[in-house]
Amino acid sequence: MIRFLILSGYFELMLMLQVTGKLNQYINTHYSYLAFLSMVLAFILSVTQLIKWVRNKKSTHSHFSTKKSLLLAYLITSIPLFVGFCFPTVSLDASIVDTKGFHFPLAKESTGDAQIRTQYLRPDTSIYYNKNDYTDLMTKIKNKYIDKGTIKVTDENYLELMEIIYNYPGEFIGKNIQYTGFFYQDPEKKANYGFLFRFGIIHCIADSGVFGLLNSFPTNVPYKTNEWVHVSGKIELEHYKPFNRNLPTVVVTKAEKTVAPHNQYVYRSF
Q1: Which pairs from 53-59 meet CB under 8 Å and 24+ separation?
Q2: Residue 251 neighbours by CB under 8 Å, 6+ apart
Q3: Strand boundaries in the chain, DSSP class E
Q4: Is 237 exposed, middle or buried (0-12, 13-18, 19+ CB in 10 A)?
Q5: CB atoms within 10 A of CB 199
Q6: At 36, is the secondary structure helix, strand, or coil?
């Protein structure tokens, strides 16, 4: 009976996430079909367990150690249900940047730790490919945009564009760009500088991050942190002192406040 309750709980949780539209806050929406398949599988298995319980096929002469192991397994598998049903999902905002600390992604060579893969500013999908395949993929994506007079960043191409702009900043110097994001005040508090960010999910929430570009405005920035802004401008390279490196920067020619999109997350297409 406990197995039936746990499995039916997984089915109900997946159904709730699908119906409420909150699934996109956990996984890349391109993989939503997997969540649907898991929901169907959980339903089938729960029905199977219910039938087995009704028919009383389960042995009632289990050893104490077996019961103890089963109890531990039930507790562990129930944790996702407890979290999913009891903790509300919220859309992230700029406060998460302040909470986790604002810094440029460090290369593993500079830290000595191959597991450090901080996802800030530049999406990094290199961990999912070998070196040659990753280089070929980045070259292919770059060639899609390198000859365009104006680069228009959309929800669909946001992450791949951010990745190639940071990978090949020199080749995008002088390119016109248009994109939208939520404003984050430059930590250095420079009056005419600020970042525009989007929260992105590469595969799931575990490899999510805050991605975007530094923006240089012609005058003091009239926007507040978390306000959504659409900008047009030209990509240049500027030395950013807090990170002690050159960053691709949008020299803004036009900016206007806009409304937040219905889905504030962007996802990586593969």
Answers
A1: 53/1, 53/3, 53/4
A2: 216, 233, 234, 235, 236
A3: 120-121, 150-152, 176-185, 193-201, 209-216, 228-240, 245-258, 265-267
A4: middle
A5: 21
A6: helix
Inter-CA distances, 5 with 9, 81, 94, 185, 201, Å:
6, 11, 39, 48, 31
Report residue 11 as tokens.
């089915």
Q: How far apart are CA 142 and CA 96, in angstroms?
A: 30
DSSP annotation of 179 reads E
Query: Which tokens sit at 50?
Result: 């219910």
Cβ atoms of 136 and 163 within 8 Å: the answer is: no
Specify the residue for token string 């999902």: 89
Rounded Cα gap, residues 108 and 263, in angstroms: 32
| pLDDT per position as a tens digit, 223-240 | 998 999 999 999 999 988
Q: Which CATH architecture has domain 95-267?
A: Beta Barrel (2.40)
Query: Strand 228-240 to strand 245-258: parallel, antiparallel, or no bridges (unpaired)?
Result: antiparallel
Contact 230, 178 (CB under 8 A): yes
What is the per-residue pLDDT across 61-94, written as a single tens digit (0 to 9) for each?
544 456 666 676 666 666 666 666 665 555 555 5
Which residues are CB-neighbours of 229 under 8 A, at least 6 positions away? 180, 181, 182, 183, 196, 223, 255, 256, 257, 258
Rg (CA), the chain: 23
Q: What is the pTM of this model?
A: 0.68
B/e letters for 7-18, b = 16+ CB within 10 Å, e = fewer, are: bbbbbbbbeebe
User: Exposure string (b/e) for 239-270, b if CB count within 10 Å is 16 or more?
Assistant: ebeeeeeebbbbebeebeeeeeeeebbbbbee
User: What ranges do the domains of the chain cover?
Assistant: 2-86, 95-267
